[in-house]
Amino acid sequence: MSTTIRSELYIGGQWVPPHGQETLTVRSAATEEVIGSVPAAAPADVDAAVAAAKAAFPGWRAWAPERRAAILDRFADEIDERTEEIITAISRQNGMPITVARRLEAGFSSLLLRYYARLVRHQPAAEVRPGLLVSQTSIRRHPIGVIAAIVPWNVPQTLTFTKVAPALAAGCTVVVKPSPETVLDAYLIAEAALAAGVPQGVLSIVPGGRELGAYLVSHPGVDKVAFTGSTEGGRAVAEACARLLRPVSLELGGKSAAIFLDDADLDPDAIGESLFAATLVNNGQVCFLGTRILAPRSRYAEVLGLLEAVVRASPVGDPLDESTLIGPLASARQRDRVQGYIEMGRAEGARVVAGGGRHPGPGWFVQPTIFADVDNSFRIAQEEIFGPVLSVIPYDTDDDAVRIANDTMYGLGGTVWSADTERAASVAARVQTGTIGINGYAPEPTAPFGGIKASGIGREFGPEGLASYQNLQSIYFP
Ligand code: NAD
After folding, report:
1. Taking a C-beta distance cutoff of 8 angstroms, is the pair 261, 424 a contact?
2. Distance of CA 66 to the CA centre of its chain
3. What is the distance, to the nearest Å, from the Cα of residue 246 to the centroid of all Cα atoms in its chain?
């Protein structure tokens, strides 16, 4: 297997030597072998990246939207050119099955770039509103400035572009801090930006861990922070931003409910694929997955049978193999954490009906696991596990299902399964969550995505995502 060694950083639109000596080593999630290393950015590298972003901002914001949009389109083309390289890097780093990476990663990133290019092309420069006390107000949108974008390792490309695409379209400049586990694909973003002609200083990438992230978040030159990661990390970032009165958007953890109504189709041939995508995709390492399965007591055994069939039909193995549906977890730490939760579930009195063990190594594999007889008060039902572990909770009435679904500190995703989509939609509307799907779940780039409660603040995607990188200014006319 090839190894990727990088010795420079992409800062201010150029490859530059790092200020520090430290490197970040990346291992294959499937084999545990070293697959690459990159320099760890030092605080002085962050200073340089922020200074370059600040210097580039007046020029970039002054470009006509059409000109910025053309750069975004070229950036999308350059990402598409690198699709195979990008998805291979991701699969090797974090264990995402390659077929999933093809769908969730490279293609999604270029789609976001083209979508925001189109939106900004058509956004009027100002909205004029007739007034009550003045003749009229002209409402203008201005780019916020320098954005610090902090990204987790689970879906590293798309979660970078949920920030970079609308921020660049709005006229902001961006410093991205990827996770240490997934830095190799970030270099491909840099190469694509350079090839697309993204002007100097508009985009920089500073690989590093939490401490470097904290340094960037509090940097005096940053105007807004866009964070995706754990609720714990989000709290720390929010506290720092509160002190600085710095705008922040937070996309955090989840523990969503998949509610099967009593008329749902439970045939694995009919819904198996959609159910997998909504509960287990990316080895259970997606924030919006419905990992609490709410099953009507009258059909509890049937729901368990359905889930067992879905797990049986999901080959576990090498993420680079096109037939694999479940790969290894992203790190040894993550594997140990998930295994700890499986032990905890047993100790809490839940019954293992599938999996429950470690998959033979090497690699950070965990068997997809289904727990029956789970009470919603169990820790395995309340805490985000972030692995292929499902808890099946019985309920009696629709009201009961909604009550259990809402009995969580989170509010990010969810699904309702029913033969009657109107009935499902009326149950969905009563679930306290930022997004929810009917008979399946797929985040839609044109619609706002984000959480409530401990799942976050703010929205990405849609025009709302663009607006989150713009300040509003009202100009009153006498
Ligand atoms: P994490 O919070 O440990 O790290 C996320 C990123 O933030 C990393 O780049 C990390 O270095 C950085 N970071 C952590 N603490 C920081 C701090 N105090 N200041 C600045 N930067 C800091 O999360 P993770 O384990 O990498 O990712 C998994 C988590 O992300 C899960 O909880 C998952 O639900 C969440 N997530 C949420 C969404 C969403 O859209 N809501 C999407 C994907 C993942």
Report:
1. yes
2. 28
3. 22
SS3 428: helix
Is the CB of 462 within 6 Å of ligand 1? no
Taking the centre of ligand 1 as the mean of its atom positions, its distance from the CA of residue 233, in whole angstroms, is 6
3-state DSSP helix/strand/coil % of the chain, to nearest 5: 45, 20, 35
Choosing from 78, 105, 181, 251, which is the catalytic residue? 251
Fold classified for 257-438: Aldehyde Dehydrogenase; Chain A, domain 2 (3.40.309)
Token couple for 320: 């680079």
Highest CATH level, class, for 4-252+453-477: alpha beta
On whether the CB atoms of residues 364 and 31 are closer than 8 A, the answer is no
Is pTM beyond 0.85? Reply is: yes
Q: Please, what's the b/e burial string for 106-143 (b: 16 or more CB within 10 A of its CB; e: otherwise)?
A: bbbbbbbbbbbbebbbebeeeeeeeeeeeeebeeebeb
Top mutation candidate among 228, 286, 364, 433 for ligand 1, by most atoms within 8 Å of CB: 228
Residue ranges per structural domain of the chain: 4-252+453-477, 257-438
239 lines ligand 1 (CB under 6 A): no
Q: Compute the distance between CA of residue 171 and CA of residue 168 in angstroms, rounded to an integer.
A: 5
* Residue 251 annotated in active site: yes
**Of residues 91, 152, 153, the one with CA closest to residue 325:** 91
CA of 227 to the centre of ligand 1 (A): 7
Quote the radius of gyration of the chain (alpha carbons, Å). 23
Tens-of-pLDDT digits for all 478 residues of the chain?
689 999 999 999 999 999 999 999 999 999 999 999 999 999 999 999 999 999 999 999 999 999 999 999 999 999 999 999 999 999 999 999 999 999 999 899 999 999 999 999 999 989 999 999 999 999 999 999 999 999 999 999 999 999 999 999 999 999 999 999 999 999 999 999 999 999 999 999 999 999 999 999 999 999 999 999 999 999 999 999 999 999 999 999 999 999 999 999 999 999 999 999 999 999 999 999 999 999 999 999 999 999 999 999 999 999 999 999 999 999 999 999 999 999 999 999 999 999 998 777 799 999 999 999 999 999 999 999 999 999 999 999 999 999 999 999 999 999 999 999 999 999 999 999 999 999 999 999 999 999 999 999 999 999 999 999 999 999 999 9
Of the candidates 252, 168, 193, the one whose C-alpha atom is nearest the C-alpha of residue 470 is 168
Q: Distance between CA atoms of 272 and 452, rounded to whole angstroms?
A: 28
Q: Which SS3 state, helix, strand or coil, does residue 1 take?
A: coil
How many Cα atoms sit within 13 Å of 17 on the Cβ side?
3
